[in-house]
Write a structure and sequence with these properties.
Helices cover 68% and strands 0% of the residues. By secondary structure, the protein is mostly helical.
């Protein structure tokens, strides 16, 4: 019996690790401006200017046409807006491709706008849109802040600033309960 008790105690001490309470950090952590952390698992992949990029856009167009539920279609447009934003980062930061970065930014804003339009159409029809509206609020603010950080580091601030203003006008200012 003693041997069994000793074996159980040894097993518990070797496999179970104690967890100690930690004090909360007195200073809040800063928000990340890393697209990998903010938008995981979305990665740039093929970007505007790549030879296979039109195939990527064609695939996305087909998938969009095969989505019949407006809520899912709005979610899909939000995903696409994130993809376009991550592509923009790739084009600005790594490839220094101003022309295609501007095209990607335009697509980013267009995709967000489509998601917002679907939400507004659902609301006009009397459908419940609070969850979708709150997603537009949280995702939109996250994308807007990331975009502002991105262009602050960019050499093409002047040409991208109008898109910031347009996006600020689109992103809902408050959440709904």
């Amino acid at each position: 019996m003693k041997k069994l008790l000793i074996a159980i105690i040894l097993f518990l001490f070797t496999t179970v690790t104690p967890i100690f309470a930690q004090e909360e950090s007195p200073t809040p952590t800063s928000t990340s401006s890393n697209s990998y952390e903010l938008f995981y698992p979305i990665v740039a992949g093929k970007v505007s200017g790549d030879s296979l990029y039109p195939l990527k856009l064609a695939r996305e167009w087909i998938v969009n046409k095969l989505i019949f539920d407006s809520l899912r279609k709005a979610d899909y447009h939000l995903i696409l807006s994130k993809k376009r934003l991550v592509e923009t980062e790739e084009l600005i930061v790594n490839r220094k491709d101003v022309t295609n970065a501007e095209k990607s930014v335009k697509r980013f804003v267009e995709e967000y706008k489509k998601a917002l339009e679907i939400t507004q159409d659902r609301e006009k029809k009397g459908q419940k849109v609070d969850d979708l509206y709150n997603t537009l609020y949280s995702d939109g603010n996250k994308e807007l802040n990331f975009f502002k950080d991105l262009i602050a580091k960019s050499e093409i601030k002047e040409s991208l600033q109008p898109y910031v203003s347009e996006l600020e006008g689109l992103v809902p200012q408050t959440k709904r309960d």
